[in-house]
Write a structure and sequence with these properties.
There is one protein chain. This protein has 21 helices and 17 strands. By secondary structure, the protein is α/β, with parallel strands linked by helices. Among the domains are: 173-338, Alanine racemase (TIM Barrel, Alpha-Beta Barrel), CATH 3.20.20.10; 350-443, Lyase, Ornithine Decarboxylase, Chain A, domain 1 (Beta Barrel); 517-564, no CATH class. Strands 1, 2, 11, 12, 13, 14, 15, 16 and 17 form a nine-stranded mixed sheet that branches. Strands 3-4-5-6-7-8-9-10 form an eight-stranded parallel β-barrel, surrounded by four helices. The longest helix is centred in the middle third of the chain and has 19 residues, at 268-286. It is found in: Cell projection, Axon; Cell projection, Dendrite; Cytoplasm, Perinuclear region; Cytoplasmic granule. Keywords: Cell projection, Cytoplasm, Cytoplasmic vesicle, Golgi apparatus, Membrane, Nucleus, Polyamine biosynthesis, Pyridoxal phosphate, Transport, Ubl conjugation. It holds the Pfam family Orn_Arg_deC_N.
């Protein structure tokens, strides 16, 4: 992205309040190499009465993963779609001829997903699958939330350690690893590794003898869109042999993992896999292994429109855990989530770089205005060899959203979207009915956070897209409170651990919809209703009234009550 584009990109909402302007005018400042404040500055900003544990967290970098300079703070009803509109408008008005696709990432949506996860699976420690989306903003916000990280190679381990994540919060979850990368893990203190074959055991004995191994078992993922058991995982009948070999080689096996693949339509696959893990735990314990890690893998849906909702999957998992690994059994339960956290948080804007109209010379096929029927072929600056790879791998048909709303009187034409590669397979979508579009127009696609970032392709002549991060003030405050509420022993253990129940977190932090309208932001709501309704100015009266307003807005009672009692509301 050129400096000229950066200068001319407009990211200021028309209704932005005065204090917002400096932040929003600097929407792309991070692309100029802006760094977070030094540690000394962050410590100076910490309240003087902070307890020792909180200040120690600051010293260890826990509060430094994400700062306000890493994203655009939005409020007053300003959404990601508004931000995207401003950015595309600025790009269209730029004098440069080269305009590239770009992402807008709602970090607040990731925060909201995290609290939902803790609510639905309170016994499970989330680890983020870095391969899904390794963008800096995502890694920082998840590290700030206390997640562990599941890495598949040296590059991913380097990424998360570079931002300050301790080795104890990293699992090297690749059953087939290069020797050099095993040595890297050993050198940098990464102890938890996965395996599914004898050769991997032999490599670990030589290169990382102190590693704690997790045995990856195969599952029935025959109904999943993206299957993994064809490539990874050992069958149940071979588990005992591997566990015996590990014992003879003095390799410590501490747990079992599985992955049912992505897009599995049957939540019972998790229950069956958990039952299989119980059998392997019994084998390992019988052979003298100290089995205490259960890794549920991934495959969790990342969108609201998935065939099986996350809450349904969580319900099945909780029932299976209660049956096979009841609370208090001493087993640490993990999950490796990728799509779940990032899919819906990212929206991408791509531009039309070329178009052609193909006349369909068919007798009797004429439009009302008398012209010959035609189909329109649009060429985009991104294709299936870049950010739209899901078309090839996940059989997804992306649906574009037009930046310019067409009038109801505009005729629609049969249309198709193609990527920039000189290749007949680079078809993004076809069979669409769109109004007449032009070169330079922008198309927007939602739910583009998984396996898209960093997917530039020399074959298609594209580069990795730039990302603009945004977060609502509500989500930012929730993130900050999550840090201060973290239990001191969690940091000592080095493993992310939710509070006793996920409900406590959502209730305590008053987390609501990300990019909430101004009417349900505390200051905005009280100021709006104050003119129309007389509020009884008794101690706590105004706050109770605010809580009632939250209830009327549809917020949960527990959140409204805790908000009404909050002394921070003016």
């Amino acid at each position: 992205m050129s400096e000229q584009f950066l200068r001319q990109t407009r990211a200021v909402p028309r209704r932005a309040s005065a204090p917002q302007l400096p932040l929003l005018l600097g929407v792309l400042h991070k692309f100029r190499g802006h760094r977070r404040p030094p540690l000394a500055a962050r410590l100076a900003l910490a309240p003087a009465k902070e307890d020792g544990a909180a200040r120690q967290l600051l010293l260890q970098g826990m509060a430094g993963y994400l700062s306000e300079s890493d994203f655009v703070m939005v409020e007053e009803g300003f959404s990601t779609r508004d931000l995207l509109k401003e950015l595309t408008l600025g790009a269209s008005e730029a004098t440069t001829d080269e305009v590239a696709a770009f992402f807008v990432a709602d970090l607040g949506a990731i925060v909201r997903k995290h609290f939902c996860f803790l609510k639905c699976l309170p016994r499970v420690r989330p680890f983020y699958a870095v391969k899904c989306n390794s963008s800096p903003g995502v890694l920082k916000v998840l590290a700030q939330l206390g997640l562990g990280f599941s890495c598949a190679n040296k590059a991913e381990m380097e990424l998360v350690q570079h931002i300050g994540v301790p080795a104890s919060k990293i699992i090297y979850a690749n059953p087939c690893k290069q020797i050099a990368q095993i040595k890297y893990a050993a050198k940098h203190g990464i102890q938890l590794l996965s395996f599914d074959n004898e050769m991997e055991l032999a490599k670990v004995v030589k290169s990382h003898p102190s590693a704690k191994m997790v045995l990856c078992i195969a599952t029935d993922d025959s109904h999943s869109l993206s299957r993994l058991s064809l490539k990874f995982g050992v069958s149940l009948k071979s588990c005992r042999h591997l566990l015996e070999n590990a014992k003879k080689s003095h390799v410590e096996v501490v747990g079992v993992s599985f992955h049912i693949g992505s897009g599995c339509p049957d939540p019972q696959a998790y229950a069956q896999s958990i039952a299989d893990v119980r059998l392997v735990f019994e084998m390992g314990t019988e052979l003298g292994h100290k089995m205490h890690v259960l890794d549920l893998g991934g495959g969790f849906p990342g969108t609201e429109g998935a065939k099986v909702r996350f809450e349904e999957i969580a319900s099945v998992i909780n029932s299976a855990l209660d049956l096979y690994f009841p609370e208090g059994c001493g087993v640490d339960i993990l999950a490796e989530l990728g799509r779940y956290y990032v899919t819906s948080a990212f929206t991408v804007a791509v531009s039309i770089i070329a178009k052609k109209e193909v006349l369909l010379d068919q007798p009797g096929k004429e439009e009302e205005n008398g012209s010959t029927t035609k189909t329109v072929v649009y060429h985009l600056d991104e294709g299936v060899y870049g950010i739209f790879n899901s078309v090839l791998f996940d059989n997804i048909c992306p649906t574009p959203i037009l930046q310019k709303k067409p009038s109801t009187e505009q005729p629609l034409y049969s249309s198709s979207l193609w990527g920039p590669a000189v290749d007949g397979c680079d078809c993004v979508a076809e069979g669409l009915w769109l109004p007449q579009l032009h070169v330079g127009d922008w198309l927007v696609f939602d739910n583009m956070g998984a396996y898209t970032v960093g997917m530039g392709s020399p074959f298609g002549g594209t580069q990795a897209c730039h990302i603009t991060y945004a977060m609502s003030r509500v989500a930012w405050e929730a993130l900050r409170r999550q840090l201060m509420a973290a239990e001191q022993e969690d940091d000592a253990e080095g493993v992310c651990k939710p509070l006793s129940c996920g409900w406590e977190i959502t209730d305590t932090l008053c987390v609501g919809p990300v990019f909430t309208p101004a009417s349900i932001i505390a200051r905005g709501l009280v100021s709006q209703v104050g003119k129309a309704v007389r509020v009884k100015q008794t101690p706590g009266g105004r706050f109770r009234f605010f809580g009632q307003c939250l209830l009327e807005q549809g917020w949960p009672r527990s959140i409204a009550v805790s908000s009404a009692d909050s002394p921070g509301i003016p």
